[in-house]
């Protein structure tokens, strides 16, 4: 009996640490939609159509130059469903149990599908940021997500022009220094009752592209208080308000950060000052030399997978 208990415990541990994560459901306006569930949906008959684009498993994207960085592996092509959401509404992403050691920033971007999202190639998207969480008051955004029941909520800007968009959610896990793990995914949404706002050129970025040259910190040794989330500022629509005024409305202007995730949110991205220019060459040494770290799940996880 004792042997059985030990084995069962071991097995449970392996199962737990081997799981990385993905979004299982998305909610807005009181409506919830299932995400693409990679370990069960492929085996259903008929195979369900989801509002979230297909992913192959719960693992990360490791290459920032691959088109997979846009909407995960296989997510460059569309699904045949869209989620109706009102401009100005909150959208909540429900993740699988996120690993505590998979610390890092959380961001949400959108890109117009220029029509029908089901035929839109994600890597052609011109993405604008609607929400971000970095490192605030000693806490990574991923920790906030866990504390909030493995959920993250972002606001769809109230003035955003109606139409179909991809909403790209992402956690970047920084536990393996020098090898950031990207966990993106994309919901196809149909924004209704929007305004006239469009992002300006300086608010747009691309995937792949945005992470080129970005220097991730060593989360164990660097001073993280200066960490600036990668990419453009969260859209404010302020700089096109003169040429393209937002009509006055009772709900008035909804701040892109009204969900309150981040006080570091509005810091401008600086390409010229990497957070830690030297960490990539020394990360392996640092990792193996580290004696102070006691992230047993993290170490076991690394051994038991390619990540
Ligand atoms: Cu992982």
Automatic annotation (TrEMBL):
Compartments reported by the entry: Secreted
Gene Ontology biological-process entries: cellulose catabolic process
Regions of compositional bias (Basic residues) in chain numbering: 284-307
Keywords: Carbohydrate metabolism, Cellulose degradation, Copper, Disulfide bond, Hydrolase, Metal-binding, Monooxygenase, Oxidoreductase, Polysaccharide degradation, Secreted, Signal
Keyword Oxidoreductase applies: yes
Name of the top EC class for this enzyme: oxidoreductase
Cofactor dependency: Cu(2+)
One GO location term (cellular component): extracellular region
Family: Belongs to the polysaccharide monooxygenase AA9 family.
Protein name as catalogued: lytic cellulose monooxygenase (C4-dehydrogenating)
